[in-house]
Each structure stands twice: as C-alpha cells, then as structure tokens.
Amino acid sequence: MTDEHDTNGGEDADDTDGAPVMEAYRYPDGSITYPGHPYGPGGQEPTETVDLSEYTAEVVTWTTSTATPPGVREPNTIAIVEFDVEGEPVRAIGQVASETIDIGDDVRPVYCEELRDPEAGIREPASQEWDGFRFEPIE
Amino acid sequence: MERVAIIGASMTQFGQREEWIRGLLAEAGGACLRDAGVSADAVDHLYVSNMASGEFEGQTGVPNALAHDLSAVPAYTARIDQTSSSGGAGVYAAWQSVASGASEMTLLVGGEKMTHRSTSEATDVIASLTHPVEYKHGLTLPSFAGLTARHYLDTYDAPRESLGKVAVKNHRNGIDNPHAQFRKEVDLDTVLDSPIVADPLRLYDFCPITDGSAALLLCPESVAREYADDYAVITGIGGATDTHVVHERADPTTMGGVVNSAEVAYEMADVGPDDIDVAELHDMFTILEFLQSEDLGFFEKGEGWKAVEEGVTDRDGELPINTSGGLKSKGHPLGASGVAQVYEIYKQVLGDAGPRQVDAETGLACNVGGFGNCVTTAILEGRQ
C-alpha cells in the first residue's frame, strides 16, 4: 500500500499521470473489493490496487430511479456489474451511461467528472469525491 | 441473566402529525407509563430510538429532553441510532439494560418527525447512510430495492404481481389498525398501475414518509406480576450487521444480518422458524418481505413469493405476516418502526390485538436498517 492509497478512503483516485482510475483493492487472500477498505478478509490490510477501468464487466441487475434526491439526474439508471479480474469476480455499482441496459449486457467504465451536484445534497461537499465511472454497454 | 418482561406498550397515531419530535416522544412515552400504571420516578433507564432528529428538525439531545418532559430525571438516558433499525436496536439496548441487572425499569421510546420535509429531502437524509461510492452515484434506499427486486424476479422466476400482492395484503391488514397512516384497501391493479419509482417497483411497493412514536416498558420478569397481570417475555433477541457497501454481498437476495440475528434469537428462545405464530417484518419495500421471510427460515430461498401468492401470510393464513399493516400501510417513522413492530407482537401474544388478533403464543419482529445493513430480530411469548 502506498500513502496515496491510505488517504483516499477507498474512493476512486488518479494515477501518477493524473488520469482517473477506478480503484479497487486486492487483499492477501486474493479477493478484490470495490470500493477498497482499510482492512479486508481476516482483518488483513490490502496488498495492492487494481484499476477496474481497464476491464469490462457484466450487468448483474439494474434499476431506473425516478424519485431522485437533490442534485441527482432524473431519471437515474443504476447497475450492479461484475468484473472478471483474471478469474477473480469483483462487483461494482454505478450510473448507466446509456438509455437502455439489460441483465447480462457487457459494459465498460466511462469516466464522468461530476456524478451529482455536490452542493445540493445533505453530505458535506469536501468530505468525498464526486467524480467516478459510469457503465456503458459494449456494442 | 435476568429474563426480561414487557409490561406496557403504546404507539401514537402514525401519519402526518402537527407535533415535532419532542411532542411525539412525550406522547408515546407518557401513554406507555400510564398503560403500565408505572410512575416516571421508577424509570432507571430511558432509551430513545431516533435516526435523525438533528438532520430533520435541528433538534438534538432528545433523550435528555424526553427525560425532563416525562419528569423521569435523573434516569440514565441515551439515543439509539441504527438508521431504520433504530427501534429494534433500542429494544436490544433496553433488553440488555434489564437483563444485565443495570436497570430495574427501562422505558424505550422510538420516534421520528419527517413529513415537514419534501420526499426528495427525506430520501436524501436517509440515503446519507450510504458509502461515498454509493452516494455520489445518487443511490437511495428505493433504488437498492429496485435493483434487488429485479434480481429476485429474474433469479427465481417470480411474477411481478407477487410483489404487488404484498402491498395488497398489508393494506388490507392496516384497515383494522387505528394507528395506521393509511387505512384503505388497494387492489392489485392500483399497485401495478401506480407510477414507477425504482423500476420494476412502483409507488405502492414503498412505505410512506411518516411522523410517529411508539414505546415499551421493560422490567425483570421476576417482578413483572407486581405491575401487570398479563405481560410478554422477550425470550430471544439477536442483532447483526451486513456489509455497508450493498453490492459486495455474495448473494444480493440474502440479507446476512437477518440470517445471523435470527440464528441468535432462535437459539436464545430455544425455538425455530416453525414455532413462530405471527411475525412483523420490515416491509419498507415489498421485496423486503420476501427476503426476510426466507432469511428467517419461514420459507425456502426463492419461495417466499409463493407463500404470498398462496395466502400463507394472510391474517387467516398459516403464518400471518404484518398483521399491523406493516410499514407499508402503518407508515415508517424511522426510529419508531422497530418499537411499533414489537408493540404489535406484544398485543398479539397477549390476545389484545382486537380485530387484528390471530392465534399466537409466540411472535417475531424483524427490524432492518439501511438495506439490510443492520438488523435486530426479537422473539416474544405471552404470559397470561
């Protein structure tokens, strides 16, 4: 683990070139989580990070929310997807970048600078990151 | 360890109320003490289940405020916040206080004031429990329900109509609950034609935003007869957590907190799922009634929807679920809901549920916080 990984709280980060990464953590037992956590299975600290934006995923389930909180796009289609990182399954959640989506669709992460208006909701804007990755179906 | 009795219970009218949080808590707390014929002077511990009075109303410090308003000073007091399962966690804290011998008389009051906020604002207050990665994508509790409902229907080949039948059943039950927010029957077509909120779930798959409060009075069973001819005993109780990040769970249709809290409660009570005569489940969304009824062991995984279709969970069915009308019809004032669930089971096992009464000696209440993030399961038996 580098200091950079210790300080971002398991949220998405930038790589050394400043390009955004979809940062997951790998733990000593080989499992990977997104987002990362300070401690993994068995209380073990993560050993390295994995950039999920370099992988594709499959849609596990999705919903379109029409009653969204302040600062969130409406409607807001969300999907849970599963990446295959060299045989290790990793699930993630996020907004969908297309108008249609279905269970079993293959998707790729696409970067978005601001997923919701940080100033509109109850959470302190400075307390977390607001950029991240949406999922776009692969034609 | 002392066995713990519930010797009094109350709940306010649920719905859109003029009172603010202090008034709601005092209303239920005072009524509970009167129900048991116990003076506020006798209260050793006073717990308040409440998720967000600071965020909703700008009023913090509600436990101390309630102790003063009830004239229960110098009782020890604390606020119990476990989001939507604050009520169940309060039951756990109150039970612990008596079981451990720390308190001879514990009053638990759960309450929330929400309806002065818009649906959008209230949804955001509740969604603030989510992980930053979830929050920035605009995840809400209803959207978790939509994601899980689609996965459940797809995985178990269940019809969309089965979810609607949960809403129909619980609204039908709520007609006979004088405290319920909605006392009106809804038919299946109304549910299935209502506006989409989180596809495939529609408006009538969701509980409303509610003001209300409920209370319980607990003491050691060894002295319960001094206060009440009839009382209920908490024979088993368990609490557990699941992942904060919802999508990290291995099976999206299993709530580990329900499984684990129930296992502890069943073992403590020395009963199993087949021994439960009536249950109050946390139907914040219709899909949750399926998940809990399966994770509590009432039905096999993926079969909960069939039980609803076959009428097994109707009031006159083999295992009545949500005779109170559930959160769906009764309403969901966050901190009050887990307390109100136990209120209903208390009434049922004492044979005091009026037109909602079913044949019940043993009842179970399962209170869920977040989207299964925190859960408390309690088992009650009547003593008459």
Task: Give the topology, please.
The complex is a heterodimer of chains A (139) and B (384).
Chain A: H1 3-7, E1 13-14, E2 20-21, E3 23-26, E4 32-33, E5 48-51, E6 57-65, E7 76-85, E8 88-95, E9 106-112, E10 132-137
Chain B: E1 4-11, H1 21-36, E2 45-49, H2 53-57, H3 62-69, E3 76-80, H4 86-99, E4 106-112, H5 119-127, H6 132-135, H7 141-156, H8 160-174, H9 188-193, E5 196-198, E6 201-202, E7 212-220, H10 221-224, E8 231-241, H11 256-269, E9 278-280, H12 286-295, H13 304-309, H14 326-330, H15 334-349, E10 362-369, E11 374-383
Parallel strand pairs in B: 2-3, 2-4, 9-10
Antiparallel strand pairs in B: 1-7, 1-8, 4-7, 5-6, 8-11, 10-11
Structural class, from secondary structure content of chain A?
mainly beta
- What spatial form of chain A do the alpha-carbon principal axes imply? globular
| Helix content estimate of chain A | under 10%
- CATH architecture heading of the domain at 4-117 and 209-224 in chain B: 3-Layer(aba) Sandwich
Main beta sheet strand tally, sense and closure of chain B:
9 strands, mixed
Order of helices and strands of chain B: EHEHHEHEHHHHHEEEHEHEHHHHEE
Average pLDDT for all residues of chain B: 98
Shape of chain B: globular
State the secondary-structure class of chain B.
alpha/beta
**Uncertain segments of chain B of ≥5 residues (pLDDT<50)?**
none
Q: Give the beta-strand count of chain A.
A: 10
What does the radius of gyration of chain A come to?
Answer: 15 Å
Through-space gap between termini of chain B? 22 Å
CATH class of the domain at 4-117 and 209-224 in chain B: Alpha Beta
What portion of residues of chain B is helical?
Answer: 25-40%
The CATH topology label of the domain at 4-117 and 209-224 in chain B is Peroxisomal Thiolase, Chain A, domain 1
| Widest β-sheet, arrangement of strands of chain B | 3-2-4-7-1-8-11-10-9
The total domain count of chain A is: 1
Over all CA atoms, what is the radius of gyration of chain B?
19 Å
Q: Quick one: CATH superfamily of the domain at 4-117 and 209-224 in chain B?
A: Thiolase/Chalcone synthase
The helix/strand series of chain A, from N terminus to C terminus, equals HEEEEEEEEEE
Protein name (chain B): Acetyl-CoA C-acetyltransferase
Organism (chain B): Halobellus clavatus
Domain Thiolase C-terminal (chain B): 238-381
Domain Thiolase N-terminal (chain B): 4-222
